[in-house]
Design a protein that fits this description.
about 90 residues, alpha+beta, Ubiquitin-like (UB roll), five-stranded mixed sheet, globular
């Protein structure tokens, strides 16, 4: 079942996101919401997904404030009004 959710992007991706941090999408899952957004804004895809269609290693997603990195999947169902935050992790040594 499709649901309307808000996807928030980091400022770092503003240029690829039409200078807009929040986007309304309709999808059934968190992964579907991100894919839908990337279909709408193709320049985002390389920053969010690897070539194989899996999220990049240094991209963290939160669903209603809960980090999904430890779940091992983004196939989490969404409901109307859900919020998805995309955060690019900073790493280094």
């Amino acid at each position: 079942m499709m649901a309307a959710a808000t996807v928030r992007l980091p400022r770092l991706l503003l240029a690829q996101a039409g200078n807009q941090r929040t986007h309304e999408v309709e999808a059934a899952t968190v992964l579907g919401a991100l894919d839908t957004l990337c279909e709408r804004l193709p320049a985002l895809r390389v920053h969010i997904f690897e070539r194989a269609g899996v999220p990049r290693q240094h991209v963290n997603c939160f669903h209603n404030g809960e980090i999904l990195r430890f779940r091992g999947t983004l196939e989490i169902p969404i409901e109307d009004g859900d919020e998805i935050d995309v955060v690019q992790a900073v790493s280094g040594g």
